[in-house]
């Protein structure tokens, strides 16, 4: 028997299906640089449920080993995770790599090099999506992203009005400010249901402003047992549900 929070999500999805609609889910996993046991477990899980995943890779930290490990996984997309995942903000500020703390030209040069590096390492799975480390970026950089080649930006939280395509994540599995393990499953599910209501409400204008996807954010390097069990339950419920479509990186860019 499902626990109450999973039952609530099932009921909400059933209502979406009954209305003849579908919701686009997507999975973003950050910080892959090399093959690890955590990455192996992630790939095994998404392969089992046929759920695609966008893996955000810091270009300066990766190489051929990760390229070989991801080769052949049709459901994997690779996005640009900044450059070296290095903080350049002073101690009194929140961490940022792509902030206004360095010359704009320096940041753009790193992004250009990172884009080219990942495109060469992952020719079949690369997508022109920028995932800023710590989900923060200087807004003044957005106008320059198309010139680098980027077609979309992904941070965390509801999409805000922007001339540049935003494909954000909305439910983070990690309790970063507390245990640094998995958040309470009910709390994560509540975030998903809230996002579901936001994009499936009756107000079409508000739906358009909110975006069209539900993004789930994971970090395979620091997952505990609670995260893995949450993902198993989420995929079991949603992967074959008629209201759900798990989307690839290419789908999101399109």
UniProtKB/TrEMBL annotation:
| Keywords (A to Z) from UniProt | Plasmid
Recorded hits in SUPFAM superfamilies, A to Z, give: Glycoside hydrolase/deacetylase
UniProt xrefs under InterPro entries: CE4_u4-like, Glyco_hydro/deAcase_b/a-brl
Q: What is this protein called?
A: Polysaccharide deacetylase family protein
Source organism: Ensifer adhaerens
């Amino acid at each position: 028997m499902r626990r109450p929070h999973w039952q609530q999500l099932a009921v909400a999805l059933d209502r979406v299906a009954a209305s003849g609609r579908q919701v686009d889910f997507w999975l973003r996993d950050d910080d892959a640089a090399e093959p690890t046991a955590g990455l192996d477990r992630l790939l095994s899980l998404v392969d089992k449920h046929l759920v695609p995943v966008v893996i955000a890779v810091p270009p300066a930290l990766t190489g051929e080993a990760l390229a070989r490990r991801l080769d052949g996984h049709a459901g994997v997309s690779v996005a640009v995770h900044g450059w070296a995942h290095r903080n350049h903000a002073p101690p009194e500020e929140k961490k940022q790599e792509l902030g206004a703390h360095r010359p704009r030209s320096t940041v753009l040069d790193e992004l250009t090099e990172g884009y080219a590096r990942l495109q060469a390492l992952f020719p079949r799975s690369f997508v022109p999506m920028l995932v800023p480390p710590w989900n923060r970026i200087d807004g003044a950089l957005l106008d320059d992203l198309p010139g680098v080649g980027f077609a979309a930006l992904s941070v965390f939280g509801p999409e805000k009005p922007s001339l540049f395509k935003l494909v954000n994540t909305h439910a983070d599995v990690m309790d970063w400010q507390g245990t640094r393990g998995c958040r309470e499953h009910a709390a994560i599910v509540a975030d998903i249901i809230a996002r579901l209501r936001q994009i499936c409400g009756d107000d079409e204008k508000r739906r358009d402003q909110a975006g069209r996807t539900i993004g789930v954010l994971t970090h395979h390097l620091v997952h505990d047992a609670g995260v893995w069990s949450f993902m198993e339950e989420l995929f079991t419920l949603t992967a074959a549900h008629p209201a759900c479509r798990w989307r690839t990186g290419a789908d999101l860019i399109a």
